[in-house]
Structures are given as structure tokens and as C-alpha cells.
Amino acid sequence: MIAPTVGHYRFVRDDGQPLDFQPGQFIQVHFDYADGTPAKRSYSLATIHDHALGPGEAVEIAVSFVPGGAATALFEALEPGHPLQASGPYGRFCLQPGDHNRRYLLIATGTGVTPYRSMLPLLAEAIAGRGIEVVLLQGARNDEELLYGDDFRAFADAHPAFRYVPCYSRGIPDGAHPDARHGYVQQHLAEFAPDPASDIAYLCGNPNMVDACFEALKEAGLTGAQIRREKYVSSK
């Protein structure tokens, strides 16, 4: 468990082959409801590996537990070595090779931050190769719900061009980094002065947050092509 209601799971393919994916993509987990009706749930890949070296072995996802949820029951019952059926990868919520921006604004709440974890090696390449800057605004109620916060803080410490800004809706915890903010991510977006001449923004997570940030970015002058978004809706 990486938060009170979020589990981190790591899988490998049972045929021994790697999973070739682009950071930002997701897989679909397939299962049956109690009455035998087929069901599926989508989970963004949280895997970090160097794609320059080819596909990696691990398939990592973060799963939000929903009380009474069928998918929650499935994952809670998993034991090490238990098989799971999945398909993919799918999706286009990825960094684009043709991007010529000078800054990425990455904005997330909840498990919507998982795609950004898998993007870290590509962001490191873009920082070194193109001299870009990156700002990650991550929303959480408190420190224990700040998913992968240690990974992002360590990356920020190692890459000065990467600024990590956790936003706590319940109040900044004691001893927090100076970049921590109190409130919701959409309340602090304006502080970083979105600029259509230099920025590409990614929005992932709560639909209300995604909509609010999308409107704020449009008002700042960013075009639809400069705003890439995915909404996460919890399903039972």
C-alpha cells in the first residue's frame, strides 16, 4: 500500500517477454463480475525504465480501492504469483518526439500522477538534450496520500530544471519542502504563469480538476493542441 486506499502492484508477463509501451499509456485488466459478466478496468503504467535500452520486464500500476468495488475485491485477493489477465498497452497521453516546447506543466491528482512517474527517464533526456524545464503540480489531501512523492522529490533534487510542487488540500505538513503549497492544484496554476509561447500542459486525474485547469490554460492562451488530458473516474 502506497496510500491508505491505493495499492502498488508489480507484474511480469507469463510468457517471459517484456511489455513494450510508451510512458503515459495504460493497460486494461480483465475479470468477471460475480454473475459471470465480463468486466475490465484501465490502469496507467507506473513503470520506470530506460526506454533507450528497449522494453523493460516490469508492469507496474497503482490501484485505487473503492469500497464494495469488484476490481477492488479482485486486487485485494491477489497473492504473490497469482495470475491476472490484461491487454494493451493503449492510449496517447504521452510525450511527443516532435515537441519543441521549452516547458512542460504536469498536473495531477490521485492516481493520475502515475503516468508522470513512468515519464521520468524521458523527461531527464529532454532536460539534458533540449534544456527544457518541467513543473509538476500534484494534488493530495495530506502527505500519506501523496503518491510516489519520494520518487518525484528525489528526481527534483537530482534535476534542478524539474520543479516538484505538492499541493495539500488539508494543510501543509510539518517539515514540508518550501515548494509545497496549501490548496488545490488549480488554485496554484496561475503562479507558474502558463505561456502559450513556451508551454505544453498535461492534465490527469479528477475530472473537475482537469476541467478547471483546462479552462485556466485556455484563458492563458494555450491552444487545444498544447493541452493533453486524461480524466480518471473511479469505477466499481
Describe this structure in words.
This protein has 236 residues and is of the alpha/beta class. Helix content is 22%, strand content 29%. The strands form 3 sheets. A 6-stranded parallel β-sheet has the order 9-8-7-6-10-11, with helices on both faces. Strand 7, helix 3 and strand 8 form a beta-alpha-beta unit. The longest helix is centred in the middle third of the chain and has 17 residues. The mean pLDDT is 94.
The helicity comes to: 10-25%
Low-confidence stretches: none
Strands across the major sheet, in which order? 9-8-7-6-10-11
- How many strands, which pairing sense, and closed or not: the largest β-sheet? 6 strands, parallel
Secondary-structure class: alpha/beta
Per DSSP E runs of 2 or more residues, the count of β-strands stands at 11
**Strand coverage percent:** 25-35%
Round the Cα radius of gyration to an integer and report it: 18 Å
Distance linking N and C termini: 19 Å
Query: Total number of helical segments?
Result: 5
* Large-scale geometry: globular
Q: Output the helix-strand order.
A: EEEEHEEHEHEEHEHE
What is the arithmetic mean of pLDDT?
94
